[in-house]
Amino acid sequence: MPSGPGGSPGEGLRPHCAVERCRWCERDDLPCRFCSGTGRWSPQRPGVDANGAIEWTRVEEQCRMCAGTGREHSPLTDPPDPAPSAHSPGEL
Ligand SMILES: [Zn+2]
Ligand SMILES: [Zn+2]
Fold this sequence. Notes:
With 92 residues, the chain is mainly β. The protein has one helix at 23-26, and strands at residues 40-41, 44-48, 54-58, 61-62. The strands form 2 sheets. It has a two-stranded antiparallel sheet. A two-stranded antiparallel sheet has the order 2-3.
């Protein structure tokens, strides 16, 4: 039995999203939390069958949250800035 595509992370990932010089694509330490860094996700789409009942169909598509890059693009909290800010907080 030949081993088909296992869908291992890193396979089929886009190197960059549509944003030029995207600061999220520059990072490699934050995997997309929606697709776990695979760049693909399998959401369920609602549909209506012949009887008018809602049925859910599982589809696989490119992760929209990271544009298929597998990198986090909208974290709940801002990641720490690589460059320290020059501000001195607490000084009035
Ligand atoms: Zn990006
Ligand atoms: Zn993603």
